[in-house]
User: Fold branched-chain-amino-acid transaminase from Natronospira bacteriovora.
Amino acid sequence: HETAWLNGEFLPLQEARISPLDRGFLFGDGIYEVVPIYDGQPFELEAHLDRLEYSLGEIRLRNPLSRAQWRSMIAELVERNGGGDQTVYFQITRGADSQRDHGFPDPDLAPTCFAMSSPLAPAPARFASDGARAHLVEDIRWRRCDIKATGLLANAMAKQAARDAGADEALLHRDGQLIEGSSMTLFLVENGALLTPPKGPSILPGITRDVVINLARDLGVAVEEAPLAMTRLQSCDELWFTSSSREIMPVTQVDGITIGDGRPGPVWQRFQQTLSERTRVQSST
Ligand code: PLP
Assistant:
């Protein structure tokens, strides 16, 4: 996991260099994606590339690569890093200007494009046996959380607040509602049905969220996409966080609150089992 890709060239990660005038560095003016790789094959790549195009469009940053170029760059990066299970990270920033100025450069600069791979680390075994812990943190992020932007300071602060409280992930809340994690989508299970906040400017439209909702359809489980009051923590049977690199993570403790019976639940078990079958199946076809 040492070969990276920068502006069209593969190179050792340690040799990758960008300008300090890059707008990604100065302003967090960029968009990113994270795609999981199972057995050398990307999972849900087209959905990630769709979301990339959406995010780029929302900040008026042109996509410097075609779909075919993204696919082939990612395939080569995965191969150069030894195949198997990986997570591929890639980002596009608005490039290096001649000076620091907030407004977008005119004419357009050449965007800076970067990609790297990391090992796809399996979740700690205690998540499946005992469940993970979450810590409630007020959501202070901007009102365009639907854009997958590289400016992640509020997310980083929330994650660190969770760690400082001895928890694994932050559970963001705003105006009395549960929103999502610092880097994961929120699901509750209540009376056998899945509940998750609706898409919109206050959450990232998670790819795993769509995968889980489609799974629910196939498994005959009802899904309700609706705002979730914080009081739901007391009434729900299960709470999960989902993401591309962590799949479905069961949470059994939120600060002092025990979720359900305090063990990862049967609905989680069924969904995680089915998801892991699909990641391998889809990726090997
Ligand atoms: N919510 C936030 C804020 C995220 O950063 C992420 C992913 O990193 C997610 C949700 C989950 O999205 P996905 O399932 O596409 O990985």
The pocket of pyridoxal-5'-phosphate is lined by residues 34, 155, 180, 183-185, 204, 206-209, 242-244 (CB under 6 Å).
